[in-house]
Every structure is written in structure tokens, then in C-alpha cells.
Amino acid sequence: MSCIEPTLTTPLLSRFPNQTDYSDQDPQTITRPETLPEPNKLLIPIPPSPNTQTHYKCLATIHDNAGPISSLTLCGEFLFSASSTKDITVWQHPDLRQFAKFGHGEGSVKALVAVGNRVFSAHQDGKVRVWKVSTRSENVFRLVASLPTTRDYLGRCLKQSNYVQTRRNHRRLWIEHGDSISCLAVHGDVVYSGSWDRTLKVWRMSDLKCLESIRAHDDAINAIAVHDGMVYTASADGKIKAWDKRNEMKNSHCLLNTLVARSNMSWNAIATCVGTGIVYAAGSDGHVAVWQCDLEKEKRVWMLVCDVKAHGMAVLSLCVVSELVFTGSGDRSIGVWKRKNGGELIKLGFLRGHEGPVRCLQASWYRTGRGYVVYSGGLDRSLRVWWVPQEENLGVK
């Protein structure tokens, strides 16, 4: 996860400006609902004045999701949410009017990423599904492929050397994931998928062909982030690994470094901030660790600069926007943190209201209100919207 929001420049956005500051919104015309039985009628009230001493607060809650929220992603003017009931919902943000719904019957969704006019979804059945905006209607998504594609599968299935032994004593093609896919990331013309089968797979976006499969960890891969061409994988084996391409033409990757903070724990989420060389990782022991990579040196070296006890229970999700870091935890709270120049995290406060663990987070800067809109998805089946003013508006130095 990166601190730069992805932008979906497709027919999906043909009627909307390609920006996320919502500076043209008139907050005075918006009324505040606290709980929404009808999400398609939701209007989010953003505090209009940057001078008001507005504390963190929940702006709205959508309770009527079919299942626990498993993934959130912001794409241009839209928020995508996925649930364990196989549905993917598209919301216009910040108003959270329901725009579209798709994905019925295609396996529990674990992760989402969007690029161009396509949406990639990772599923519990070990498949990556590719959805495309319909040319007939921009609020309709159709399934165009599943990875590995039939063409890729048939081109390799007759050669015995293309088969590998899985941990459950089954033989599969190396292009197939043998367990639930937990995370996705996109960089350039490449899609990365990480799985509980411990492998990292590399897919070419142009033809959806699997280019590489890496046995990356000794336990399940829980998260992926891409930063300045480097790929970071976070695993239940307690390690963060940094990968780089050793051959640009073949898209093959090599291990640059292994980041370890403590033993006997699992890394559940990872995030980076472009241009800073900073890597954040969320642990099962409630800690958040921060590494700084010196981008100016020819040989990349990572230094652990911060390791803070952020929550009383496991940290399940991370989101980075500008100098703020948001952490979602099994203790049902969302931590708000400020990053200092050296990478150290300073606690600003907590957002509370979820009735279950906070599984996923996304955030966006709102210029007019001088603050952040934070979206959180929980295992309590609720999608919540929060307002976090810029820290100086709270008197925090």
C-alpha cells in the first residue's frame, strides 16, 4: 500500500473530475445521518471551516452489508468495498452513494486493486478475477478473465516440469495458487499476488500471463506493497522481504533484504510512502514497526527507526496519507499517528465505534475542510466514515 492514491482514468469516471479533494462540494447543503438504512441516499457532512476545533468523529455508518468487510480501495472518485459474501460494491465518495455492485458467486473476496478500466479481485478459491467496465454502461462491471487464464493453463499443462508439489501433497502448475490469495498490488504493467500458499506471483497486465512464481516465505503471505520499483511482502513467518527485478526483460525478481523486528509474531499489513524510503508494518502483537531505506546509496540498506506498541491487540490494517498513519486493530479501534521527519510515530488519538476488529482502511485528503476522510471496514459488517481534522486544528504540534 502506498500513500499515493491510485487513479482510475476510465469510462467509469467519464462524468466525474479526476481528483479527490472535493473542493467543489458545498458542505452547507449536506445533512448528517448517523446510521444509514439506505446507503444509496447517504450524504456525508464534512466540517466546512478549517478553524473549528472539530475532534475526530464518525460521520456515518452503513450496517446493512451482507458480510464482514474484507477489503477497501480508493480509485479516483470511487471507493470499492469487498466482503466475504463474494460481493464487490462501488461507492461514490465522499457521499457513499452506491454506484454499482458485482462479483456474485465468484468466491469470497480477499483483496482488490484497480488500474485502467479493469478491477482485479483476489479470492479465497485461489483465483484472481479480472473485471472490466462495460462499454454499454459505466456502472456495470463484467468478468473478462480469471488468472491463470485458460490459454496460459493449456499452454503449460502438458509439460511435467511445469508442475510443483504443494504443501497439501497435491501437484499443481506453478502458475496456480494453491491456497487463498490474500493480497494484490500493481506496478506499471505488472500485477503481484500473494497467497497463503507462501508464493508471490507476477502477472503481466497486457496479456494476463503469469511471468514468475516465487516461494517467498515460510508461512502465509498477508500483504504486498510496491515502492519505487521494489516489492515488499509481509508474512505470518514474522519477516518483511524486499524484492527487486534482476532482469527487466524477463520480470524476474531477486531478494534484496529481509526485515525482522521481533520473533514469534506475524506481519498482517504493510504500507509505504513514495519518495521517503519509509516502510510501515503492522504486527499481530499490536506493534507497528517503521524502517527507513536510504534511497541515495547504491546498495539499499534498511534501518529500523521505530517500533511502537500501537494497540492492545493485533494490528490488522494500515493506511498512509501524507504524514498521517492510520492503524486498524483487533481491539476495534483505529489509531491516528503523525510521522516525524526521522520516521518516528507520535500518537494523535483513536477512532472508536466499531463493534468488531477493523479489517481494512482507506483515507483521502479533503482540502476545503482541511482534514481527512477515513473509511474503515470491520468484521462487524459495518462500513464507517470518519472525519480527522489536520493536526494543527487540534492544537497538536
UniProtKB/TrEMBL annotation:
Family annotation (Pfam families): WD40
Any one GO MF annotation of this record: kinase activity
WD repeats: 174-213, 214-244, 351-386
SMART domains listed in its UniProt record: WD40
Comp. bias (Polar residues): 7-32
Keywords: Kinase, Repeat, Transferase, WD repeat
Origin superkingdom: Eukaryota
Chain intervals for the UniProt region annotation (Disordered): 1-41
Protein name: Myosin heavy chain kinase B
Organism: Carex littledalei
Species lineage: Eukaryota, Viridiplantae, Streptophyta, Embryophyta, Tracheophyta
